[in-house]
Amino acid sequence: MAKEFLSQKGVEYIAYDVTKDRDALREMMRISDGARTVPVISVCNEVMVGFDSNRVEQALSCLEHSSEIPETV
Amino acid sequence: MNAITIYSMEGCPFCIKAKSFLTEKGIGFAEIKISPGSKEWEQMKEITGSNSPPQILVQGEPIGGYSDLVNLYATGDLNKRLGLSMEGPVSPLYDVIIIGGGPAGLSAAIYAARKVLKTILISKNIGGQVADTYEIENFLGFSQIETADLIAKFDEHVDRYGIEKLVGTDVNSIELAGKIKKVTDGNGKTYFSKTVIIATGKRPRPLNVSGEKELIGRGVAYCSTCDAPLFAGADVAVIGGGNSALEAAIDLDKVANKVYMVSLTPLTGDQIVQDKVRNSSKVTIYTEYDTNRIIGTSAVEGLEIKSLATGEVSVLDVEGVFIEIGLLPNSDLVIGTLETNRQGEIVTDNMCRTGISGVFACGDVTSVPFKQVIIAAGEGAKAALSASDYLINQR
């Protein structure tokens, strides 16, 4: 659902499969302060645990001012 | 006490109009029936100074008759006096409000739409508990389907009928007595309806130990199908001794490094599943052990357990704790209002009726045996047809 949402918005993202990539899992837990659930979405400097379309939409507004790419895990 | 009182007389057309106007807007009122010369007639005259029914009181204050009522409503003054939200007009009156978006609620929505009932479905999510399993192999027509695909099909089917859906919010309170039912969502918005179908399903039963709530999603999990893959190579514990706990252990056995099963009682699940777990070299079983607490600050670091036999306390070094100790019905909204059984399930008759007229229930939240997707879907259909029958008889 999160991936579909980002694609619909035309936002580029990097997806990490944390069930297969141990390093990505560790990184996800680090940036989210321990979260072991998916999805974890990082946009600019904001980390969101779980998918809430309103929150993601708000967070995406930072992209208008920068060229950073959000990441979904 | 109702905020509105109407003095009405039999055969008075504006009395009927005033009452149906309020009913349509979902506004409750008390009615005092009068006849010329009666004690109530004299009371009306004294309070309102008028001889002509209907006479309407709002918060005890006379406002006049039917046209005064409509004017008061149109200016928004009525809402203000009743303390209702001022945002836009009052919500329309639905035929059916369905609470819950699992198989029962979605199926009810389709049947309600086919009966051309004005319907809204309110749910935190679409799919309900089905989303907690990975695959379904016993839904007629699908020998094997991923639940995400099945839920997408359900949702698409419902959308084909253009049913109004409010997804992503809880229901905070409901008032079921009276002809018009009131449902208030998590944002405080109130919806009015002639009938309500409760299809709120079940949720995992919590363990209620220290550290559990704080560490949900941080190593504490309730759905092995969903979350087991996140524990690849890790040491984990499963709490519980029934079938769902054993199946969680089997799910975890495929990915984890070590699996500890902790059960308050001897294992109670099916023998065939027990054997599978016992034969795994990764699984260590602790039966007749209580769980004291889950240890960890920002993520699970361990599990403290205590032997019932010796009282000895030990700590298991785990990163994950899967709690699989059964399910609780989501009936909190109606406990005390509707009849429930010892498990808290809503008791229904064979037409999904609850005992309060216009209120129906279906799916896993009810006392209907065998919690299955196909049964919930069938019960949802029944509830909607039953609501439709009820509405026809009300006309």
Explain this structure.
The complex is a heterodimer of chains A (73) and B (395). Chain A has 73 residues and is an alpha+beta fold. In chain A, strands 1-4-2-3 form a 4-stranded mixed beta sheet, with helices on one face. Chain A has helices spanning 2-8, 22-31, 53-60, and strands at residues 14-15, 40-43, 46-49, 71-72. Chain A is 34% helix and 16% strand. The two termini of chain A are 12 Å apart. The mean pLDDT of chain A is 83. With 395 residues, chain B is an alpha/beta fold. Chain B is 27% helix and 27% strand. Chain B contains 10 helices and 23 strands. Chain B has helices spanning 13-24, 39-48, 66-74, 77-82, 103-114, 147-160, 224-227, 243-253, 271-278, 373-394; strands at residues 4-9, 30-34, 55-58, 61-64, 93-99, 119-123, 135-136, 145-146, 164-167, 171-175, 181-185, 190-198, 202-204, 220-221, 235-239, 258-263, 283-287, 289-295, 302-307, 313-316, 320-323, 327-329, 359-361. In chain B, the strands form 6 sheets. In chain B, strands 5, 6, 9, 10, 11, 12 and 23 form a 7-stranded mixed beta sheet that branches. Chain B has a 5-stranded parallel beta sheet with strand order 14-21-15-16-17, covered by helices on one side. In chain B, α5 links the parallel β5 and β6 (119-123). In chain B, α1 runs parallel beside α3 (66-74) and α8 packs parallel to α9. Classes of the chains: A alpha+beta (73), B alpha/beta (395). Chains A and B meet through α2 of A and loops of B.
